[in-house]
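Schema walk-through. Below, the input block comes first and the output block second. Nothing else is stored per chain. Lengths vary across the set, and this one has 498 residues.
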Amino acid sequence: MTLPAVTRAVACAALAFVAGCETIRTELGQTESVDLNKPYWVEAVDPDSGATLGGARAPLFDAHQDGTPLRIGRVPCDQGILLRGSALLLYQTGSRAALLELLAGVDDASPERDAPAVIEVIGDGRRLVRNRLHHGYQPVDCGAALSGADVLIINVTAPSNVYVTLMLPRLSGVPGMRQALVEAKDALRAAQAATDAADAAASAGMPYRTNGIHAFICTVKGEGGCLGLSNEACMVAVSPRGGRVVEFRTSKDNNCITFESSVAPAPHDRRLVLSDAVYDAPWKWRIEPDGTLRLLSPPDFANGIRWSRAFTLHPTAPVMRVADCMKNCVGHAVSWSIGTRLIFPPQVSLMMPMEDTPPGFTLVHPPDDGITARDGVVVIERVDGGRMRALSGRRRGQAAATRAGAWIAADDGQTCVIMRSRAPGADLFPYDGRRAVVRTGAKGFDASLYSPVSPLEPGEFYCSEQWWALGAASTSPPASVTALHATMERAAHDLGGL
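--- output ---
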């Protein structure tokens, strides 16, 4: 018998022995085993885009689409999952899982045979296994002891034309685990149905007027149905898909500065995925008696948090309070900063607080064309035709940051808008203490404000408060910022903030 044949025989015999032992223990009532060659997952997404895997990317079970068997290194498999490209599978076990049995490898029928794949097994936020997979090699053992992990993630990173087979995937653990897997999946569907019903009930009560605030349903081009709040000085439109701000303006006819705002956990290099099932899905919403618009996200089990956002307009001033909260929704500790992302077009000057030491800002990626620091303000300026030097040609990807404070302002020559976070100076911020970061790109500015990093035990939550204000632009961007800070202070005093 050749060496590869011996290897295959030993691997198959070992799997058969383990499977037999698990079956015996299950029959004795000591453990329960669940074969995972069925869609027991809560989420199956592309970790790069966050999109749910479907169509040509949908996982296949037990065979290829044409019925041919799955094979790794010429070892056939009649129980497995075929993943085509990168994929993240997330399971909720009800903390009943003790052991994951899994062999993995690049499938023999993979269109691309030279590029490797990487597989990771993560239990309750801890990486338990990380292996590289290559075409033509024998199956690699990727099993792991789970020690009662509630959230199990199998994460595969691979080019779209590399096919990875998960061979004989099985969970063993406390009896009731299969029911827990099914109930977690059903609970997500039930929660979405409840959100739809609650949104329909809330919509039936619109429009709604209270405390000088008008709440209504509106349509925004490119977004569809949105939730609107207005007072005598300004209005805001929030998309229920992802809880994103899509308009903040002084009047119906004045769109002011076009921008978009959303939330995400930071730092980004620790995130597993921003799933569309959370960050582009409908969020539950309601209007509070004081006119506050409150939204609640689906659970982001991959990163262990659930979001809520609350928007409160001042009754008369063009000022809004934004409260962003994250709650630990899993059974283990997590630690994140709240990152508020702001996307602006290139036709604006962007500003942030100036650091004490020259040049007044931290240049993350050079060059520093178009960036100046004066009067306590860092200004990234637009130039002729509304296009920044920093946005042209090789200068795309420029990034500047500040540790001096947590606010960002934008000025288009007519209107100025500012976003300011309440953030104590002694706390730990991500990205080496940077509180505000501005990046340039082909389409405009990608700016972010960060809260302190907050450790959260199961069930704990952390909230970050921001104040947004609108006003007329002056001839000097720093003067515009000074005026808006004053407007914000007066309005925040009325609402009991800052």
